[in-house]
Amino acid sequence: MQPPSPSTVLILDAASGVGRWARDALIDAGYACVVAETSHEALRSLDALRAGLVVMPVAELSAWTAVLSHIAERKSGLPVLGVVDREASVDVTPALKLGVGDLLTYPCAPGDLVERVAASIDKREPALETLEHGSPVADLRAATEAAEQALFRAETAEARVSRAEEREHLRMHRESLSHSLQVLLGTMVGTAESGAAGRSGHSRTVATIVKRMAQELGWAPERVRGMELAGLLHDIGLLALPADLLSGEGPLTEHQLRLLHTHPDASAEILEPLSRVGVPVSAVRAHHERLDGSGYPRGLRGRQVPVGAEMLAVADCYAALVHERPHRPAYSPAEALEILEQEVAAGKLSAKALSILHKVIVRPSGADSPAAIAK
Predict the structure, then answer these.
(1) Given a cut of 70, is residue 367 above it in pLDDT?
(2) Which tens digit of pLDDT belongs to each residue from 86-139?
(3) Of 91, 122, 153, which one is at a domain's C-terminal end?
(4) Is residue 368 in a domain?
(5) How many domains does the chain have?
(6) Measured between alpha carbons, how far is 2 from 310 in angstroms, rounded to an integer?
(7) Within a domain: residue 182?
(8) Which residue, 303, 302, 185, 277, is CA-closest to 235?
(9) Alpha carbon distance 18, 293 (integer Å)
(10) Per-residue pLDDT at 328
(11) Does one domain contain both 213 and 116?
């Protein structure tokens, strides 16, 4: 466990429910916490405290809309962790649209909450060398920040106009901005992959797979789109690494492995501004975590690993297996699924995520199916 940040955790709790449990768990772990029961209290706390994170029950979204809007308008990058009741049927899409960047299912062990809070606060203060001016990560982060601001302005304008034709025009403008961003960043990722042996087209395959997995789960279109973008851009942090790191045929040295293990954090830092528009950045950061704690960069385990990361993990592994690499030929889809079954049996990958992957791989889905793209 990393030592707690001095930042205060602001807990929103209008119904005197999960907030008290969260406060007690975090105080026991050494965090400073403030519980707000009304929007007035929350806004006053935001102005007075050095808040590092906001925790909010998703079921209380209507009570906290003004607070989330205030956070978005300040553009402070303050992360919001949504707590979702495991037994309740709650549509999380509106919460994601309003700025909730990560989700935690409750009830859970206090340690799961503490680990998720620690990870969310840590990513607000990236290492200085990571975001050094002129570095690839800093330049890409600046691009995503500019894109998020443009998208936010378009959304705000769309919400304020009353004429249907004006709203439609602004909606089309916002979609055009989003598409341009996807093309720009996707092209950069594709260029980086083309220089790495056996990785050409990898992210495009992952994007197609996780999109179909999210659709299989019946997720809302906005959330499906967010997962597709996460799949396309999950390895964008590789652009911050030495160009020859993945181009060799031999095994990586210990130093090279340490460098490689930094890429999920780099990807998350670059994409963080896009969490406001539905990209599940927490899933990107954790896509190399494993349920038994053997993954990286933080060694999360069990329910500490976001659901989106579980989906990205199986899609990422499958896409890697069905492509040829310098040290091995490509596996067939059936062979790749068998290998992933072994990883599930070993407690590393999610059985539920793999069962969904099975469905989207074996079902014929046309030219854009994962199996077709992998060929």
Answers:
(1) no
(2) 777 777 888 887 888 888 888 888 888 888 888 777 554 444 344 454 466 676
(3) 122
(4) yes
(5) 2
(6) 23
(7) no
(8) 185
(9) 26
(10) 80
(11) no
